Amino acid sequence: MSPGIGRLERYVLSRTLAGVAGALAVIGAVIVLIDFVEISRTVGGRGDAGFPRLLWLTILKAPSTILTLLPFVFLFGTLAAFVGLNRRSELIAMRAAGVSAWRFILPAATAAFVVGAVTVAALNPVAAMLGASFERSRTAIASEFQTSAAKDTWLRQGDSTSQVVIRASAHDQVNGAVRLKDVSMFIYRVTPKGGLEFSRRLEAEEARLMPGYWRLSGVREAAPGAGSVRSETLSIPSTLDEQAAIERFTTPEAIAFWRLPATIRGSEAAGFSALPYRLRLHQLLATPLLYAALSVLAAAFSLRLMRLGGLAALAASGVALGFIFFFFNQFCGALGKAEILPAFAAAWAPPLLALLSGLTLLCYTEDGGIVRGRTAVRKSAE
Fold first, then answer.
1. Inter-axis angle of helices 101-118 and 287-300, to 10 degrees?
2. 43-49: long-range contacts, CB 8 A cutoff, minimum separation 24
3. Using the 8-state DSSP alphabet, how is residue 249 labeled?
4. All domains of the chain, ordered by start, with CATH?
5. Are the CB atoms for 214 and 235 separated by under 8 Å?
6. Using one digit for the tens of pLDDT, what is the confidence trace for 44-68?
7. Would you say 127 and 64 are in contact if contact means Cβ atoms under 8 Å apart?
8. What average pLDDT score do residues 340-344 get?
């Protein structure tokens, strides 16, 4: 009996993966189209950006958006696969043969969990890298046709002896090095009691981040109680590397999973709050559970027998509930960023709630359906 069950589970798993692949193709095509229209509207009119360049920018941006909406891929794909099995009466035949719904839903949920782990470990860093390339390319195009004052860029670095707050009017990358323009550096000493004491201020026309230090050009230096001193060049030690500096210009969502622990440590050493990065790290760790939970939820909403009616309404309810959980996830993330909820609770509560909801509905559908079926058989026999 075990070989038959194994083949049955593999068949259901293959149908589920096919449904997920179809949902991914549809959602991916829609995302690429929307991103292309948006990039054409915001970037295309600013410079000599033809169709190939706009298409390349779209390809760079699309993976990050697709990963954000990947929970819907598992929701819609699993739902479509199980509804298809139900319409062809294959689920009825499986359950009539004594196969529990738990047996053929478990492979789908396990596959979703594994894909979620691969997404976090491998696809997220690739998407982050492509997203960073997109931001650099878009910034380069926009800087050529800048018509208004840019927003100031702020950085902070530090260690146990000093803290440096850096303000710049613009930033870019030249030959792989981060370059800041119109720079102000506020340097503080860390007192023995852990406080900060202002030491000096540096004004520079340009600052380039080199390995282990900032190289300043056109510098004017001022200290409390002393006049300003001008110099052509000056070097300031730096605790930032190129990757860490670039990450300070981006949102936590644009940082690769494997870089988040180092970013958290660097932010705390520089005196910044690492809460957004901790929240993002917990959200990524909870991603496999979220994918598995939505797969269980989608399967549970599609197990109602066709002869009982109401399958379409139940499937639509599953889609609506999936949207509710997605926005609930975003809402918890906002509460976590506002420090209303702890980062751990804000990240793990939505997938756990989705999983418990799916398991509850599955218990009701499976065990309750068995009881109702036996009752109907006894009544018909009488």
1. 150
2. 43/138, 43/141, 43/142, 46/141, 46/142, 46/144, 46/145, 47/141, 47/144, 47/145, 49/141
3. T
4. 2-143+278-381 (no CATH), 160-238 (2.60.450.10)
5. yes
6. 555 556 778 888 888 888 898 889 8
7. yes
8. 89
